[in-house]
Every structure is written in C-alpha cells, then in structure tokens.
Specification:
Four copies of one chain form a homotetramer. The first copy, chain A, is of the alpha+beta class and 130 residues long. Chain A has one domain: Hotdog Thioesterase (Thiol Ester Dehydrase, Chain A). Helix content of chain A is 16%, strand content 40%. Chain A has two helices and six strands. In chain A, strands 1-2-4-5-6-3 form a six-stranded antiparallel β-sheet, with helices on one face. In chain A, β5 and β6 form a beta hairpin. The relative contact order of chain A is 0.22.
Chain lengths: 130, 130, 130, 130
C-alpha cells in the first residue's frame, strides 16, 4: 500500500507529516510542540518513539501483507527542544516471509537524536483447504 | 520527587492518570481513545510505548537524582481496542550510582498487552572543585 | 521436548549445566572460567548472553513446535568474576501461535547480574493442501 | 587503545580473529565450528551475540576511557551453518562523555546474518578534590 494511503490517527494527532517514500522505506517530518515534552521540557521519549514507530508502520506495510510490530528497541542520544524540526527515515534491514526488520533514525539538522530498530510479524494468509 | 509532583505535558496530552506509587515504582492508568490508534484501528505502538516510557520517567525520577532514558526495548503481545482501560506498573530491576533499569508491564484486565525494559542515566552532580 | 533431551553443543562447550524445569521454563547453572572473560578479567558480555540465550532456547523449545530466536535484548547490571557460580532462570511472558516471549535472569547468589528478554518465532507446520 | 593490544580471553576461546580497524570501529572474522551450534545444528544465538559483543568491546575501548556494556539488542535474520566464514563490523552511532552507542552487523558473504546495537558506559575519572 502506498504510504500516502495509510490512515494513522495517532500520527495525525501528533502532527506527523508523512512524505512520499519508496517501498520498504518511510520518510516523516514532525515539529516538537510543548504538548510533546517530558518533565525536563524536552521531547518526551514516548513521543520520539511514536515518530519512529510510525515510520516502522509505514515502511513495513508498504507491501501487500499486513505487518504488526513484535519488538522494538530505541537508543536516545540527544535531548530535543520545543520548536525543533525532526526528520525520520526508515530503511529495511531484512525481510523474510513472516518477519521483517527496519532501522530508523531521527535527526534534527545535523544532530542524531535517536536510533530505533523494529521487527514486525507479517500476517501471511494461511494456506486454504481445498 | 513524589510522582504526584512531576509535570509531564505529553502524559497529560495522552490522558494518562498518574496514581500514587512508592519510590522506584510507578502506577498509571489510561484509556485507549480513537486518536491513539494505528492504521488497523487498535492502540498505536508508539502510544503504548509512551505509556511505558512515562512510567519509566516517574519511577526513575523518584529519587533526588535527575534520570533520563538511555535505551528502551518493548515487546508487543496483544492488540488493544478503543475504550480499553490499561494499567501500567513499573518496578526497579537494578539501581546503581550512574544508571538504573526498570521493567514495566501494560495490562488490560487479565491480558498482558506489552512488556518494556528501560535503562536510564542518573545525572549525579560532578564533584566540585575546592 | 523435555529440556534434558536437547543437545546443545555450544552450551556443552561453555560448561552449562541444564537442570530439569517445567514446560515453558528453563533452569541452568554455570561457573565463570578464565576463558569466559573480557579484557577487564570479568565475565564477557557474550558469555552471559550465551547463558541467557540457552535458557531461551530450552524454554521456547519445550513444546512440540520448533522455536528460533528473532530478537533479544539484554541489560548488564553487575560485573562477575572468575569462579562465580551463576544461576539462570527463564519464565514465559507470553506465548501465541507464531511467536512467544521469555524473560530471563542471571544471578550470582543474591546479586542480579543481568536481565534478558527474548522473542522467538514458532515454526508451525503450514496447512497442507488436501 | 589500539584493537590489536586488547587481550580478550573469550574471543580467543571462540577463535575470533581481530583485524586492524580505526578508532571507534571494529572488524572481526570468525568461522562457525560444530562446538558453536545450537540444537538445530546452526550457529547458536549466544555465539553470534559473542561475536557482536566482542566488536562492541573493541570499538568502544578504542579511546582512553574504559567502556563497559550497559544494554544490547540483537536481531537474527538468517541461520548460519558449520564452516561458514562470518565477518563482523562495528560503527559508532553516537559518543558522548559518559555513554556511547555502536551498531554492528554480521554477514556471511552477501547474506546479512544478524544486526546488533550496544550502548556502553564510559568510566570517566571522577573530578579530584583539590
């Protein structure tokens, strides 16, 4: 399914802009607002994860097979302030019949904010009885 | 700092209810709304991560030392529908001088929805020059 | 398959003792030898991971369905010295048709050395054509 | 410290060959032997993790600051057979004062076998009293 055809209410709620991207990839943009912050006034870890997880959702669902996240891991490198414009990109590391893995980066200008790896389950139709 | 004293704008934005909990722990409640869903109409992975990450933030900041997430990992076990009431609990697995680790569970009734592990950096004041 | 019936060459190579354990669980013992150490003279992270991964292999293969690791995450809490006797236990966090998750702990006496979470793919036989 | 100067008994025990590599990186080679296998006769997950963790140890200790693993995560993409020659490379994703993150790949020819992310704690000397 082309990335532009996916409707993701949570992504819309967070103001995430979904850009055109090739099959198996994703490209997003988002701006940190005050409602996205933690108790230190910087972007909340869960907000940054939601950006990465949305990229995972789009990249892994760009084929004809529905895909859902099994496991994700995230590394936080640098705090992000209100007003910063973030760019999120996903690349496919591996894709098999039943599972696939994607690596995602969140950058703010030339700063690497966070890295994320997600593995999805691909819901292949079960072979039908004759 | 007592959990009730933390102001977390993103947690408020997501409607997370922060319950009283002991030092080194956290106890939250949240209800899945339509704005929290993914393209399949169930709770978005990033929303569930934000619940867990908020529990991490509260549990790890319940001492006198500011703590920020370094790495997190999450396992998704069961999809969650709009209207479901989720309960999130954090326990401290290990706490050292400079880092600490917390394990978090998200349940819906008797169903385990997701598990999460987070490791934080504890910003100890540097020894001052005499 | 009962845990005692599994032959795991790498576990034998590392001197891991596999104790009887219930379905969906595992219980191992191992002693840190000098060949198991890193450049600091303490147990190598890869050695500790091999202990946990062996527990994952045994617990997840205790049913009639072959299971292979998809993703694992590990948290290191405390260094371990040569001669220390380690105990490793696995519990099943979730088991579905195609995937399952296990949480594993490595302890040395009353010290928690490391925690580990592993998610496996369960190779169900594909439905056969009539 | 140059990678060639590190003595890692567990790496030697597993037959890992440490090649010259730049600061912040690592480059290893290893061949899967029968003692490195799991119950399916392919390379054990813990063995593959030990290869990646050794690359993490070398890359993160290539500066003047001792570094120890805090958390690691690993994704398994393809099974590996006895006799296969594996190549392991590490790159530095981020390095701060107290922590750093490395991404590691294990390949066999043109096949991506596994990916690994490790975050280390850098043991900076504490400021001394005057």
């Amino acid at each position: 399914m082309p990335s532009s055809a996916l409707t993701i209410p949570f992504a819309k709620h967070l103001g995430i802009e979904i850009l055109p991207a090739g099959v198996g990839t994703a490209h997003l943009r988002a701006t940190v607002l005050d409602v996205h912050t933690n108790s230190f006034g910087t972007a909340h870890g869960g907000y940054l994860n939601a950006l990465a997880d949305t990229a995972l959702e789009i990249a892994s669902n760009s084929y004809d097979v529905p895909a859902v996240a099994l496991t994700t891991s995230m590394q936080y490198h640098k705090a992000t302030s209100i007003g910063e414009a973030l760019e999120i990109t996903a690349r496919e590391t591996h894709r098999g019949r039943s599972t696939a893995t994607y690596h995602i980066e969140i950058v703010s200008g030339s700063n690497l904010i966070a890295t994320f790896t997600g593995t999805v389950f691909r819901k292949q139709p079960r072979a039908q009885k004759a």
